[in-house]
Design goal:
By secondary structure, this protein is of the alpha/beta class. It has 31 helices and ten strands. A six-stranded mixed beta sheet has the order 6-5-7-8-9-10, with helices on both faces.
Length: 683
């Protein structure tokens, strides 16, 4: 597989003017659509959409920075640089790139692990010569920013490598139930992490297995120290934002643009400043937001060895969320997105932005819906949203300094509503697919209890196990013909389908390989009711019974033949009167009644995608076993790749020849019914 991927890359690097242009246009998709941008049709919608999305970017950037365990201003930086870069490299016209709760929480977990509070406790002596531990928050925050930045740089490098190696397919292992269960669990983590800001209490930040339970217990223990003012402000904001969100959802067809609830809430900054609630009521606020952009800096690469595993998980989750949203909007609006280019785009956004003090980004569900519903047509909407964030950072960032943190917690909690609605998946999955429901539940429970990193690993492992389980327990049926149609269906499901005389048609919807070849053979014997050993014994018993009955009739008619010593092997013929001929017959009665006259078995391979050497040997062996009892096995419905596998495995050698291979079940049936008139039908 890796050789094939490298072959594609070498082919892409073939030097020619046309090839170079193709590569350039593929790497920078903006060159394909910007020259033909229809200004009159698209510009107004993109402007309105960009402003609406930018209004949401501001409060969410500030709020999600708290999840990432970095000062809020870094959320604004992350809402500018990556969004700007995605305009040039991205292929989705409607997704809003930037901060996202799940990714921010994963970043924050790593930052807290690498820079815990205990590392920054310093001693301070007071006048009574007693020593108290003081937390150096400035040094702690600076270190956590360094961790978040280098982690983002590594995530970008991983995504770029996967994109250039064409590994966009990795998301197939993150099925929709897995992602939805995982993001719902992440929403639970985020919600509990925001309770301390809503209540205005101080608790340590936990990570690892059972961290969500530890955080909840810490909040419950800290309830006696709740800041009542912070709770009132937070609850009022939650109620207001929920009402605005409900109005926007209910009247989205009538409203020209959604009501910007978050920005209205942030206007409460003025009230906070006027009432001086930080000084009078000890309500935690956003704090210092420096005006302007920080100069670029090289990340601290000495931290890389401890972050590689975390970076892989964050890179995959980030891409999975982004490509899922991109495909939804692409399908709705009739265009395509390139998974590999999306990997490259996210990689460029993360890698380059890490030099400008940003943390990892992906697509936001809530902002993408706003960008699409307000008339956004192209990536220009995201570009304008980033310029709006830039204006705030450069000119009026100081306005947000007195913003209470409980307000940001309220914004985060209300925006989690869409994720918690994914709990509605459970009844539908119960009706449609119990296996997918199991994936959803395992992903959710594992991610809640074990943490997002270990939970994702467990969820992916369980999803792969379900694939193995499905190949180990496929549906196995006997087919019969619908009269005068040439169509063959399950005889147990369709009353009109009847088995062909003397022929059994076996179908199993699975590939045949080392893990299930024995199960396939056992299922073949069970469903057809034909075991070569039992069939031989049954036929011998039937022949003995027929012989005994013939001899008895001759004796009764007085014309019994004289048996010589050679015929009796020198033994006397025992009388038949004391033996019950039905005893031997009953031993194989079901086999004799239904299957004694079976002369052919057709293996329907139309559902077989691949076969390995173990599977090929098993099929070849069972064909020989049945041939010894005069039952011929033929194959039908092999696709081209499967036939190539069989040829490569030297399947058609010896007694197994191409004469036993047919393009369809009906061709195989005709051959089995009239073998003398059939030739090689499929080569």
């Amino acid at each position: 597989f890796l050789w094939k991927q490298l072959t594609f890359i070498c082919r892409d690097l073939d030097c020619s003017a046309g090839k170079g242009k193709t590569i350039l246009f593929s790497f920078l998709p903006i060159l394909t659509w910007l020259p033909s941008y229809p200004v009159r049709q698209y510009l107004f919608g993109d402007v309105v959409s960009g402003l609406s999305t930018g209004v949401m970017q501001l409060p969410q950037g500030l709020a999600y920075a708290l999840l990432a365990a970095v000062p809020p201003v870094y959320g604004l930086y992350t809402s500018f640089y990556p969004v700007l870069l995605y305009t040039f490299f991205g292929t989705s016209k409607h997704t809003s790139i930037g901060t996202f709760a799940v990714i921010s929480l994963m970043i924050g977990g790593v930052a807290v692990r690498e820079a815990p509070d205990s590392m920054f406790s310093v001693s301070a002596s007071n006048g009574t010569n007693e020593t108290d531990a003081v937390l150096d928050t400035e040094a702690r925050d600076a270190r956590r920013v360094e961790v978040a930045v280098i982690l983002t740089c590594l995530v970008g490098l991983i995504q770029l490598a996967l994109g250039f190696l064409r590994f966009g397919f990795v998301t197939i292992y993150l099925t929709e139930p897995l992602v939805r269960g995982f993001t719902t669990a992440a929403a639970a983590h985020v919600f509990i992490s925001q309770l301390k800001y809503l209540l205005g209490i101080r608790t340590p930040r936990f990570r690892g297995p059972l961290s969500v339970i530890k955080s909840l217990v810490a909040v419950l223990i800290g309830i006696p120290t709740t800041n009542v003012t912070a709770v009132i402000i937070g609850l009022l904001c939650i109620v207001f934002l929920f009402m605005i969100k409900t109005i926007n959802d209910r009247f989205k067809d009538k409203l020209p643009v959604p009501i910007p609830g978050e920005i209205i809430v942030i206007i409460s900054t003025g009230i906070s400043y006027g009432l001086q609630i930080s000084d009078k009521y000890e309500v935690d606020i956003v704090g210092k937001i420096p005006t302007g952009l920080l100069p670029p800096a090289v990340p601290d690469f000495s931290l890389l060895p401890n972050l590689f595993t975390d970076a892989i998980a964050i890179a995959v989750v980030s891409f999975s969320v982004s490509i899922s949203l991109a495909k939804i909007f692409a399908l709705k609006h009739g265009y395509s997105v390139d998974g590999n280019q999306e990997l490259i785009a996210l990689g460029m956004c993360n890698f380059v932005s890490s030099f400008f003090h940003c943390f990892t980004i992906t697509s936001s569900m809530s902002r993408s819906l706003v960008q699409e519903s307000t008339g956004g047509k192209t990536q220009i909407a995201g570009f304008l949203a980033s310029l709006m964030v830039l204006l705030v950072v450069v000119a009026i960032g100081f306005v947000f300094q007195p913003l209470p943190q409980t307000v940001l917690a309220a914004i985060v909690m209300v925006n989690l509503l869409g994720m918690f609605k994914q709990l509605r998946d459970i009844p539908g999955l119960w009706r449609m697919s119990r296996i997918e429901l199991a994936i959803w539940v395992v992903s959710f429970i594992a991610s809640v209890l074990l943490g997002l990193d270990f939970g994702l690993l467990v969820a992916v492992g369980f999803a792969i196990l379900t694939v193995i389980y499905r190949t180990q327990s496929p549906k196995k049926i006997i087919l019969g013909e619908i009269p005068n149609t040439g169509l063959y269906c399950d005889v147990d499901e369709y009353a009109e389908a009847s088995e062909c005389t003397g022929i059994k048609i076996f179908h199993s919807n699975t590939s045949i390989y080392f893990a299930n070849s024995d199960l396939y053979i056992n299922a073949l014997r069970k469903k057809t009711g034909l075991d070569p050993m039992l069939l031989q014994a049954a036929r011998t018993s039937q022949q003995s019974k027929d012989l005994e009955q013939g001899v008895t009739e001759m004796i009764l008619s007085g014309s019994a033949p004289q048996l010589d010593d050679e015929q009796t092997n020198g033994k006397a013929v025992e009388p038949l009167g004391d033996s019950d001929p039905e005893d031997t017959h009953n031993l194989h009665k079901p086999l004799l009644q239904e299957n004694i006259n079976i002369h052919s078995i057709i293996l329907d391979f139309s559902a077989v995608n691949f076969i390995d050497s173990v599977g090929a040997k098993a099929i070849k062996s069972v064909m020989k076993e049945y041939a010894e009892v005069d039952v011929q096995i033929v194959l039908a419905g092999c696709n081209g790749p499967l036939l190539a596998d069989l040829r490569r495995l030297q399947f058609f050698e010896g007694t197994v020849t191409l004469d036993l291979l047919f393009p369809s079940i009906h061709d195989a049936v005709l051959h089995c019914q009239h073998p003398a008139a059939s030739g090689i039908l499929f080569i």
